[in-house]
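#random but structural
TW: two for the price of one
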Amino acid sequence: MKGRKDLFAKSDWRAIAGLCVPSLLSIAVMLLYNMADMYFVGWMGQVSAVAAVSLVGPVYSLLMAVSTMLGNGACTRIAQALGRGDEEMVHRCTALCFWGSLEFGIVFALICFVGQRAILQLLGANEEMWFAARSYMLVLAAGAPLLLLNHTWASTLRGQGKVMISFIGSMIGTFGNILLDPVFILGLNLGVGGAAMATVLSNALAAGYYFMQSYARRCTLELHPRYARNLTMLGDLLALGLPNAVSTGLGGLAHTFSNRLLVGYGIAAVAAMGAVGKATMLVTMVQMGLCMGVQPLLAYCCGEKNWRRLRSLVHKMLGLTLTLGVVLTAVLFAERESIIGLFLQDDATAALGARLLILHMLLGPFIGLYYLAINFLQAGGNAPAATLTSALRQGVLLIPLLYLLEDCFGLNGLAFAAVAADAVSMLVAGGLALRQYRRAANIM
């Protein structure tokens, strides 16, 4: 266990770099991973195929919400346990992630197969997109256990400070997906179903790597079922990881409502907004990865009750997230036409996407403050506050704003709804985090 604590014990900037640089590299790899399917599907030259991938996005988001809920909760508890010297907790958390991923994945697959027609109708699939959307969704559902297993294991490794193992696994999954996508989509002519097959197989490769690491004893990846027989602890992990899961899951739900409204403007609008969603990941996912990367260190300080260091880390991260947010948003705006063009071959649809992107990312420079606040609340074990702010941004505010602003401003209103929801959520999250920070400051 001492080896796992070495990274946390380094000076602030070295510890931040040791955790965040690999996390950012992992996010860069994840960006490629998330963009690969739509990029290669775009090569087919069919706007309907790109729209179908975007349409099924909420199903994948829901699956990732489950993995985030389980994995992030385990990540925080593992880091806190290491701060206390509780090795038993590390074993229990990793075992719960392994068996929980398999069980949740099987249930998820059954729901998708049994309720496929109702789900596709809810997503807003029309006749033009139906076959492609169905193929993409069912293949992803079949691989749900592997997808969950891969992502939750990566989170438990971050909690142990084994960021490089987590990073290597992410690279294996991502580059496997990038290599397999053109083979299945174009070479074997499997279309969007081939894109989903590439996703599932690449996740299987990454999960296999983590499995080998457990036998190499380079990290704790407990597989014995006896450690997983604790429903109370499972509930604790799910509750602690709920804030990030709420953000992902409700984001998928909001995406569903947005797509249903977008269908009224034609499949070009669905495809354009789907491309905007991929492009804006260059800002949102990097900021999220930066803050999630430092979360184990913040949780470790809480477990160790080192409040002075916690304050120092928060100050440094505030400056870092703001600087990175300004730079990334500026790059995104300057290169928006080229970035959107990666996913859309049709010039008119690409131009529409470039215009919507500007409206969608007006608060891009400040989005990192929101993610820092969420992860700070989670590191202190304040799951209810973090869950509240996540629910506000992606569901409670965003969904009604989609309908209100679409009614007032049409298609532009759908893009601007995210900005309005972000603004309110940042203020609420910042206020709750500031209150928690002041309590820690008073202890010092």
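TW: number two ↓
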Amino acid sequence: MTTIAELQSTMSPPAAKSATPTSADAQDRFLKLLVTQMQNQDPLNPMDNAEVTTQLAQLNTVTGIEQLNKTLGQMAASSSAQQSLQAAMLVSREVLVTGNQLNVSGQPVRFGVDLPQAVDGMTVDIADAKGNVVESFQTGAQSQGTTTLEWDGLDASGKSVPPGQYVISARANYGSTIVAPATLVSRTVQSVGSAADGSIQLQLSGAGSVGIADIKRFL
């Protein structure tokens, strides 16, 4: 008796055809074959009802998997569209991403640090383009995770620093252990797009394009 595997082989389209058979086509061909088998069966060796039932169950399984894949595809497309819509709402928002360059223009600037664990204290240094430290301050104990900080743009003597780029660095301690946590800088989302793999990409001012997963915090 023809099995469901043989039926699937029979239903495979010729190589020259580009059309893909649907589950409805598969069911139609299966039923036609089954009816033909029953009409031409040996009266002395009739078809086993259990075997027919098994083949029908296999066909239903194949059809169910095809429908499940179609449903999952629709859900993925809907989820991607929803993510793109939500990401579009981030335009003009400030975000924190990994980096150490601060753009100073006479206004306080926000930045951050990413701590792998809680620390007893932390020191932040801000240097100019020549490497001269213009300001240094301590933050005290900090919790694990992303911490947002702000620099008022004043040097150690309280004077406003010239506009330009400055470099931040941080060192923290827990007990006698010293660590250098990753520094984060504030950037503005200019536009939203998608990569070739469908992932959401954000175009940031002064930072190029980054994945939405690279955003450490929304400000």
